[in-house]
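Researcher: Go.
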Amino acid sequence: MRGNIITIAVVDDETIFRVLTRKKLEEVMSKLPFTFEIEEFSAGKQFLDTKKEFDIVFMDIAMPELTGLETAQMYREYYPKGILIFLTAYEEYMKEGYKVNAFRYLGKQDPPEDFFEAVKSAVLLLQTEQKMKLQLVNGGEIFLSLDDIVYMEAQARTVLLHTRDKEILPIRSKISDLTELLEKQGFYLVHRAYLVNMRYARSCVANEVVLSTLESVPISERRCTEFKAVLSEFHSGR
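Model: Structure:
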């Protein structure tokens, strides 16, 4: 995942299903706060010959020459990460999926809500696994998963990262810069000095946002009403 760009491959030898999958993907992704790129492939060999790594791969299983499972096994040799979703109507293939760490199996005739749920779950997983390179105040640097950050607190000319392991890491940055970078990644500026990871937010009571870590951060009364609506939408969207 490069910044906010999610790369997606659709591998299917049948043009009608390849086009249909792309259309459904465009419909789902257009509702999510990410830029996306979709590439289509009509055969496993064509897909492998690009030697490209994708964030999400939709792979038909029943393909001639190289089946989807064979293609996935070869792909995983070079690119062990990334999310793999198989398109199949055959349940007997599912038990083979563990070999290539398949994320989901979708039938080509499954209802739209199943497809929508699979894509949103895949995108959420990409978000939580994405890591940021951060400069520590002492001159060092760390790579931290977004899911490890509970909230950020502006203090003087630094920002304190509060992690789910209860660490407090001072980094060289501005809260405004971090807000601009992360507001589409599930973070919300509840106060001019506090940027909260919505995955940990549970409620807004009086002038505080209560977090699942049993911590709380301040929020203005004016923002509390707006935040409740954002929080409800975030958790229903997940």
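Model: The chain is about 30% helix and 30% strand.
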